Amino acid sequence: MPQIRLLNNGVRITAGVFCLLFFLHTVFWLGRDVVEVGLGSVLGTWINGPGSGTAPVTGPYDVGLAIAQATALWAAFAGRRSAGGLLAATTVATLFMRLQATISTGSHTSDDQWFLPQAQPDEPTLGNVFLSTTLITFLALIACVVLPTGLRGWPKAAATPGFPGAPVPGPPGAPITPNGQDGDAPQRPAKTAGTVSGLLFGVLSFCSVLGIGTLVWEFRSSSILGAVFTGHGPLTRLLGLSPGWSLLMFVPLYAVGALLSLTRRVSARGFALGLALIVLPASCVALCSYFSNGVYFSLAEGEPLFAGLLNRVQLLVEVFGTIAVLILMGRSGEPVTPGMPPVGAGLPASGWGVPGMRGPGVPMGAVGMPNGGATGPYGNGAGTGPYGAPVGNGPVAGPVGNGPAAGPIGNGPAAGPIGNGPAAGPYGAPVGPYGGGVPYGGTPTPHHTAPSPQGPMPGPYGNSSMPPQGAPVPPPPAYPPSAARPAGGAPATPDSPPSPGTFGPPTP
Question: Which pTM does this prediction carry?
Answer without folding.
Answer: 0.63
